[in-house]
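Handout, section B. The chain below has 265 residues.
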Amino acid sequence: MARLLHLSDLHAVAVNMRASELLDSNALLRTAIDALSERLPAIGPIDAVLVTGDISDDGSADSYAIARAELSRLGLPIFVIPGNHDRRAALREAFADTTPMPDDGPLDWVADVAGTRIVGLDTLVEGQGGGKLRARSLDHLAQALAQSKDQSVVIALHHPPLRTGIRFMDAIGLENAEALEGILRRHGGPLRVLAGHVHGVYHAMLGGHPVVTAPSTCSAFAFDRRREAPVGFMLGPLGFAVLDTAPGGVWTACPLAMGDGPYGF
């Protein structure tokens, strides 16, 4: 079975630019890859890197070149899906040789990695923050699941089919999670849904299967469910996740910055 490094929401930008006019997200990504490179011997072996969207913040060719170069330093196969900040044409140009994406239309794909079937789904609606699964993408998923036999399945999409309680993020969530739920409910094999978008770790169930979201490498959102909660991001915590798809395997969220230690008990 596969062991996957789950990254999300890199928000890379063009050279000398900043995400949201504040975050040096390229430097933060470089620091994240440095940290991951040092920790891979302890985490590994890893079969592939799966990035659940918002690879870019501005959709520029420069940002994708930077993200691609940083991710490549890990020396692992790379699979990506678009998020709401991404642009399909530029993303396809940068990653078409790493991810089996189609030449046109939604960037949906299927890849079999170490006995695990990974299904990438495109929820991007260019020009808006919220996401939607098109009929073509839903059909793609149904066919991929029907052909999965007894494989463990990982579904990757950017907009998670859950509600966090953070009002400004839920307002730009996945529009038609119920359509996804209907397909998942018919699948009886081992399956997990991995997502991003919300820059934090949230768990839910959909159609009898677990859904989980990864932290971001550049920012976070406070878990504030109040109606008057301020709209904006925090500078941390930052992190990544690791998924082991073997029977009994776990999805584990890890902070990028560790405290001192280890100390003896």
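Note. The longest strand covers residues 239-244. Compare this with the example in section A.
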